[in-house]
Amino acid sequence: QRCCICRLWGASVTCRGQRCPRVFHFPCGSERGCVSQFFGEFKSFCWKHRPVQHVRAVQRDQTLCLICQEAVAGRPCYDTLVCPACASAWFHRRCIQGQALRSARHRFRCPLCQDVATFQEEMFRLGIKIPDR
């Protein structure tokens, strides 16, 4: 099939949004903000149907990513994630993904509140790949 992003043939990832016809290559989707869930049925979603965070988190002044210490967006979005347990830990998607790959499932937790279960469940849902080891 033809990729809806680069228009080249060979796309195989289908959006699981209701009645969404978008098909894309995995790398093209990653660059465009598509989300792939690395658990269960391995669902993928385009930029329009991707899961979003429903966390009530308020920033005070300019909030920094806990991992790289650089500024994050003013609200949760594709590139900025928030810990669902404490709502005080903010991260860049690329930073928390790197943390997940280095920590693996048995050590991956919120760097601030140390929550494991709620944090991992939300990160999985938002497309963060957490390896078993």
UniProtKB/TrEMBL annotation:
GO terms for cellular component: nucleus. This is G2/M phase-specific E3 ubiquitin-protein ligase. Residues 1-50 form the PHD-type domain. Pfam families: zf-HC5HC2H (PF13771). It comes from Eudyptes chrysocome (Western rockhopper penguin). Keywords: Metal-binding, Zinc, Zinc-finger. InterPro entries: EPHD, PHD-type_Zinc_Finger, Zinc_finger_PHD-type_CS, Znf_FYVE_PHD, Znf_PHD, Znf_RING, Znf_RING/FYVE/PHD. The keyword Mitochondrion does not apply. GO terms for molecular function: zinc ion binding. The lineage of its organism: Eukaryota, Metazoa, Chordata, Craniata, Vertebrata. Residues 65-114 form the RING-type domain. It comes from the Eukaryota.
